[in-house]
Amino acid sequence: MQIHDVHEGIQKHKKRKRVGRGPGSGHGKTSTKGHKGHSSRQGFKIRPLSEGGQMPLIRRVPIRGFANGRFKKDFAILNLELIEAFFESGAVVDEAILRAKGLVKGRHDDGLKILGDGKLTKALTVKAQKFSKTAVEKISAAGGSVEVIG
Length: 150
Known about the structure:
Blueprint: H1 57-60, E1 76-79, H2 80-86, E2 92-93, H3 95-100, E3 112-115, E4 125-128, E5 130-131, H4 133-141, E6 145-148
Parallel strand pairs: 1-3, 2-4, 3-5, 4-6
């Protein structure tokens, strides 16, 4: 074998198989679908996870653990860096004002949580349902106050 024989016979663009074009093509009559049965019929599709009557894998594997998503808390989350950028010193920051400015969007049933990412240099009064420890420290260090809404 020579190096130029390696790719001999390999086609870059393979011709597509034209089925149902008469006996001379080699793919006439049954068009490569065998004889009769539902899999030879037009429009037949098998479900990707079908196991042919065998108990499906998803039903054979036991259920483990407990998902408590129904009772999960849903807070709108906001970092101090955004509050720093959008508010002047001495301002009162609450959820209604944040929604008006477009910083909080969507439906959040449990309210607002302030996180301490970013610097805060302005003295602000921040009202929210929850605060992280770092957020409380940074707001207090800047001379502002924190009000937890029940």
